[in-house]
Amino acid sequence: MSNNRFKKFGARHKARRRSVDFLFEAEARSCKPTAVASERVALAAENDQMPPVAEYTHTVVRGVEQNKQRLDDVISTHLHEWTLERLPAVDRAILRVATWELLYATDVPSVVAVDEAVELAKELSTDDSPGFINGVLGQLVLVAPQLRAAEEQAAAAVAALDSDVGPENEDGAAAGDAEGTGSEGSQPGESGPGTSRADW
User: Fold this and answer.
1) Which end of the chain is more exposed for a tag (fewer CB within 10 A), N or C?
2) Which residue range is the domain that position 49 belongs to?
3) Nearest to 20 by CA among 162, 148, 119
């Protein structure tokens, strides 16, 4: 079996394709992609002829849904003389999946994310789409390391803030507020202190 054929029918490729299907349907129905995925899970439970939803499909769909605005901003920055809204809906879905992988899926090499997106465009979209998507993602790959580093720093900052505002701090603040209430001379705020191609 050739590398191309393995890639096309590998589990991750099928999961990506299903993610694109769910994103496309969610946009057409004006609902959340995770809602579409949940519907398919329920259907698969009732009908053994329906394929189960792969875990990677859930991962991609959740990731795109949670970061959609960020993904759209990044994609739009690299669309020359086009807007995201003017693209075919399936191309938007493919670009969102690939861009999510470039920024957030640390286990997926950039070349795999791009090649998979081009393959999906060949299977699902117009004759012009594979070249167009390859061009957009080719630009994104150049800045992906910096963008990913920025995302990781932002996530670390949020985690640090969350750890600072723990139950103990919240209880302490509440106790300080209670002590300050009704005390003479108390002031607000004195109560103290986020190669080979594997089946990626």
Assistant:
1) N
2) 3-178
3) 119
